[in-house]
Amino acid sequence: MQNNHKFHALINGELVSGTQQMPVINPSNEEFLTYCPQATPEDVERAIGAARKAWPAWRDAPMEQRRQTLHAIADCIEENAEELQRWITLEQGKPLAGAAVETSQAPAILRYFAEMDLSPRTLQDDERQRAELHRRPLGVVAAIVPWNFPLVMACYKLGPALIAGNTCLIKPSPTTPLATLRLGEMIADLVPPGVVNILPDGGDVGPLLTGHGGINKVSFTGSTATGRAVMRSAADSLQRLTLELGGNDAAIVLDDVDVDAVAPQLFALAFVNSGQVCMSIKRLYIQSGIYDRMCDALAEQARDAKLGEGLDPETQYGPVQNRQQFEAVQKLLEQAPQHGRVIAGGNTYGPGYFVEPTLIRDIEEGNPLVDEEIFGPVRSLLRFDDIDEAIARANNSPYGLGGSVWTQDLTLGKQIACRLESGSAWVNQHFAMAPHIPFGGHKQSGIGVEFAEAGLHEYTAIQSVVIAK
Ligand code: NAD
């Protein structure tokens, strides 16, 4: 595979080179990687028209055909995993091992949804009437994807959208379009024209989709600020929405844990994907009895972490994905010494958007390093004495995506987990996702869920069919 591959958008089953091209940058060295098509407003209209036209036949296609299509897309990802991993690493910056997680989870989620059952449920059947609950597809779904897990997140949305009988437009993030475009090129002949369309953009296509009367549902993953804009523009045509938004997850670490055993797990779950995960640990609440020892053990992990270019097999942590995000993290880092003590990292360097894994201890709430979502490798270590106090502080956030409790007492751990105001609550783990377990945000972390039957149902509308006897 060469970097000079010519990328195409997928519109109405055709591979389109596009009238406009845009550059994609490698975040590991800030060098130009390649050009790819940049969708124009005319491309958007064409894709929406194609998806609308394809919808009735796809909606009415036998379930078996839709199942086979999803398995065929999954096969295609598996067969081309190595190439896709390389594009993910080049455009996103993550190590190849992280890209391999995407190319293994993406087919797994497609296969999971391929086997879901959407047959009608009988609600009543007596001498008076027969009542059935049917789940109908919504129509055309716009899947809007962020830059932290470009391929797997596109597939989170593609799987349930297609199996439920919807057609789909996928809009990758402007800074990570390549793996998704390659997927489009690979599957162009596997899906009927118009059923899947892929529209790379320079940042202007999202609002065109969310305000469009031809789109029935928007499945959006991204920041809370953009989620609000999506919700506002969806109002006019009452588009159905799933919003997976930002998070500021707390981990509450009780002083009965084995510090040496738990510190590497906490570190990995805070810094995975260089801290650019909605559901990674962002605030660590550590009980006083182990606070100093845990801070030291985490700092040692940070010092041992190997940063670098993702194609280097030694690399554990890549750069921040783009300049805008890099500058946002730099700005927050500058404030760190005012609010706490930096015990590891604290520096940024280039070329590339590298930020050392940074830990700040003796820090409290009331500043952006703790109160805001940091989408980069900077984490706060907060001390607490009393468990009720820790729960209150963890919950005192507009976000409510995930949260975890770390303790050897599983009964107590579960009691605390159940008091967290978050869509996912874990004990002795974090960011533990699986296709059969729904996830979503409470409060300003989102609306609706993805994964599992509940996630599939978000791509359907209920129709009650009631027959008098
Ligand atoms: P972002 O909100 O800037 O962009 C996300 C996507 O929305 C991109 O494709 C972008 O082009 C598009 N977009 C931008 N403005 C739009 C608009 N007005 N209308 C429609 N679409 C628009 O987010 P990002 O910087 O790419 O990703 C980071 C954020 O995503 C973080 O806040 C993170 O927590 C969140 N995130 C959440 C989850 C989750 O499942 N809850 C998962 C991953 C990332």
UniProtKB/TrEMBL annotation:
| Protein's name in the database | Aldehyde dehydrogenase family protein
What is the originating organism of this protein? Answer: Vreelandella neptunia
As for family, the record states: Belongs to the aldehyde dehydrogenase family.
Looking up PANTHER family in the UniProt record yields: ALDEHYDE DEHYDROGENASE-RELATED
Write the record's keywords in alphabetical order, separated by commas. Answer: Oxidoreductase
One Pfam family from the UniProt entry?
Aldedh
The record's active-site residues are 244
Limits of the Aldehyde dehydrogenase domain: 20-465
